[in-house]
Structures are given as C-alpha cells and as structure tokens.
Amino acid sequence: MAGESGPRIKAAREAFRGVGMDQKALAARLGVSSSRLSNWENGKHEPPQSFLDLAAAALEVAPRWLSTGEGSRTEAKLTPTFPAGLSAVKVYGTVSAGNGNARPFDEDEVYVPNELARSDYGALIVDGDSMNPLLFNSDVAVFKDSREGRVGQIVAACMEDGSEWVVKQLQRGGDGRLVLASLNQGYGDIAPPFEIHGYLVGYYRVEGPERTIRYNPYGLKAR
Hints:
Layout: H1 6-14, H2 23-30, H3 34-41, H4 49-59, H5 63-68, E1 86-91, E2 109-113, E3 121-125, E4 140-145, E5 154-159, E6 165-172, E7 178-181, E8 194-207, E9 210-215
Parallel strand pairs: 1-3
Antiparallel strand pairs: 1-2, 3-4, 4-8, 5-6, 5-8, 6-7, 8-9
C-alpha cells in the first residue's frame, strides 16, 4: 500500500538525535529533492527500498522498522552508508538569520558526487538568486579549502563574527579594497571585514529526476 513508510520517515526525522533534522537537510544528505522527500513523507508515493535503506542509515534507525514498522526502532548501531555514486563532504558552517545567501543547515556533512568529495573540499547550500546565472537556489556549491582568493574567483566567505555565510565573487571595489560581489546585479557588494574559506570548484544541482554537475579542480568561474 502506497505511503505506508512515509509517516515513519517523518517521525524518525523529527526525532533525530532528540533535536530533529530539517527536511531540506535530509533531502540534501540523500541526494533527492525536497519536494520528492515531502511526497514520500506525506504518503503520496512509496519510496523504493534502496532509498529506505539509505534513509535508515542517515536517520540512525533500523531498516526493518522503517520499511515495515516491525521490530525495534533502533535494533543496532548502524554503519553509515552513502547513496550510489555519492560521498560525504563537510559543510563549512551553519547560518544565522541575516542577509547571507547560504542556507541554514544543521548537519556537518552533505552528499555530493564522488568527484566533488575530497577531504580538502567544503560545501554550502545556496539560498536565493544572488549568484544567478551560475548558481541557483538549493544548489550544493563545493569549494577547495583556502583562506585566500584571487579577484574574479567565486568564494565561500563568512562575516568576521562567523554569524553569516555567503557565496560571492571576489572583486575589487572603487576604493581598491576587496569586496564580495553578487553576479546578479540587483544586489550590493559586501565590504570587509570578512573571512574567505574556499574557492568554488563545482556544484551539484538536483531538479526532480535531473542531476547537474559542474566541476573544475582548478576553480569554477562565472561564464
């Protein structure tokens, strides 16, 4: 019967480690769109068994319980597994309310295609349209760790107090100082002080069944 496992997925997500996991966070970890996960949780469709196995590992519950409702919810400590072709990469940081364009994310890692997952890479989840037409809302932007950047590079940066993360292009302002600029001209520049944490090497985009990957280990530039 369609939708039988959906309520258990939602219950396990909301109870994750006593604090819950955001729906967008779980979708990003599993490499599916938020809308698809929502449809599964709401019982509109029954997810495939392969997804249930991965969701059980991500949510730290027993696969049998998640699939059938039978047995103990946590039968044993589960070994983390990754969706086929995906690996985990660290997330640079969480984001507080503000004008940043990196989405609040309460997990310390996210799944990306294997070529985008290295120990010296980090990720941010893009929020909004300030980096169109290169990066779009919900893209997983992946960066090479670096505390410096060159003019023209797309960088991951945070404000000096660490409260706000942004994905921007490093440019030189009219006074000669480095600023963080949006590709979308409808947004103003961000002046120092800020800290650079990496430069863009790729992104992973999920649109329904479609997956888009761009990757250049030497740095991905705006077209």
